[in-house]
Amino acid sequence: SGFVSLLRNGLLKLGVPGKLLDDLFSGTNDKVLKIPQASGSLAAVGAQAFFIPLYDLFLTYGGIFRLVFGPKSFLIVSDPAIAKHILRDNSKSYSKGILAEILEFVMGTGLIPADGDIWLARRRTVVPALHQKYVAAMIHLFCNATNRLCQKLDSAASNGEDVEMESIFSRLTLDIIGKAVFNYEFDSLTNDTGIVEAVYTVLREAEMRSMSPIPTWEIPIWKDISPRQRKVSIALKLINDNLDSLIAICKKMVDQEELQFHEEYMNEQDPSILHFLLASGDDVSSKQLRDDLMTMLIAGHETSAAVLTWTFYLLSKEPAVMSKLQEEVDSVLGDRFPTMEDMKKLKYTSRVISESLRLYPQPPVLIRRSIKDDVLGGYPIKRGEDIFISVWNLHRSPNHWAEPESFNPERWPLDGPNPNEINQNFSYLPFGGGPRKCIGDMFASFEAIVAVAMLVRQFDFHMAPGAPPVEMTTGATIHTTEGLKMTVTRRTRASIIPDLGVRIAQVIGDPEVKPSL
Ligand code: HEM
């Protein structure tokens, strides 16, 4: 048919050898070109995290297959070359699709859901805000926030109370991102009401929507009578009112300061992204500014919390990794707060986090929609296809990883490069890849390094006796089903003998300092 010859010519132009094409297109070519198809039922997926059954289907059907749910169908991609094509080489042919529809109510046209010209303009405006000097300032913020958490854990250790670490990490990263994005002190480690509750209401709603097969929230009357929807509207209004006042306060500061705007512009009192954006000329009344701030709040909160949760879970199962990690932290940091220089030196810490992100990628799938016809893995596809790139499958693919299921930070030698999507050729996508790659990758990596280093220096962590089994469920990120309940104990740090002299001197010199050995 005309289509087949068109396709053949297209492939020929792409450099596919004519001989191969002749073989391919002779006889029953339909079979050759049809994407393998798996049919599913929503019931089969059930309560299980939806990306889990996709793994077995990947082993059966390969790096690209079609999953059919009644009238709906999705292409599931688990092949690094196809992922690279969609995310990087031909990224212009893809939009955020369903994701943009689901998140519209909270992110509007913020950077994550936005497409086309809006995305490009905002990417160019927002990325410069996360410059080197900003990230360096954030290290102090990570230290202070983690230090507050350490104090909390210290009293739990004294009282012999077990701690649910997942919610603790969620609060830690909320405190950090609030300050980092718009200079707001959620103080959620100690305070649980009002705005903090509103943020969680909105997050839970976003997760529910991404899981729900029927968009009840779009039904006009339902919106007004459903108690849940009413609660969401009230929460959104509270957050937006707070945002408005934060923007107003920040604008005043910007107007009063003498500082000239330049490339590494930063106000020392308020290094926030909001401050940078207003100083760079963003309009205070702009809805886009609010959308981008909300987007960064959510993007930088849940993901970072999930990374810490799964890292501590994995560490609790591998005491040898934990010991090696503690050894590195003791020798690099001693008793100091981590600094920017330490980020390079804490190599094993950084590998532990990379390996945690391999096993538990956040989010576990990337969502796209084709906006032009294309060819994926040799199969022609039409515009309008909804695509899930399963980062979970890529990261656990037996084709690319030795012992894919095992938590083994040693798979990346310390004298080699930090693993990323480029040096792993899209088999590893902790922060995505191509033009839509995460803008907070360095921020997030340093945040995790600081938090992990400071916590394991001071405490040992074990699964609490009688803790519920740790199983997975999904929203935007991978959550545990029933929390991560741990017993936290102060470390007896026999290993830092060289430090002892200093510690004793401190204790003698300052009666307030109590020995922690
Ligand atoms: C995009 C992961 C932290 C802001 C992404 C993407 C991934 C990702 C995989 C690509 C999404 C896609 O292609 O569909 C993570 C992880 C984090 C993290 C694992 C923590 C460990 C942060 C932080 C911020 C942030 C702290 C904000 C400062 C963004 C934004 C985008 C994005 C704005 C959209 C970029 C664009 O489309 O141009 N992130 N992220 N992320 N992330 Fe992150």
Molecular structure report:
The protein has 517 residues and is of the alpha+beta class. It is 54% helix and 10% strand. The chain contains 21 helices and 13 strands. The protein has helices at 2-13, 18-25, 29-33, 42-45, 51-61, 80-89, 98-107, 116-126, 132-159, 165-182, 195-211, 220-225, 227-256, 273-279, 287-317, 319-333, 340-345, 347-359, 391-395, 441-458, 497-509, and strands at residues 37-39, 64-69, 72-77, 94-95, 163-164, 365-370, 374-376, 379-381, 386-390, 459-463, 472-474, 478-480, 485-490. The strands form 4 sheets. It has a 6-stranded mixed sheet, with helices on both faces. A 3-stranded antiparallel sheet has the order 5-13-10. It has a two-stranded antiparallel ribbon with strand order 7-8. Helix 10 (165-182) packs antiparallel against helix 15 and helix 15 (287-317) runs parallel beside helix 20 (441-458). It is globular and about 75 Å long. The chain starts with a helix and ends in an 8-residue tail after the last helix. Mean pLDDT is 89; it is low at 495-517. Protoporphyrin IX containing FE binds next to helix 15 and helix 20.
Based on the model shown, name its key terms.
517 residues, monooxygenase, binds protoporphyrin IX containing FE, disordered C terminus, six-stranded mixed sheet, single chain, three-stranded antiparallel sheet, metal-binding, Cyt_P450_sf, alpha+beta
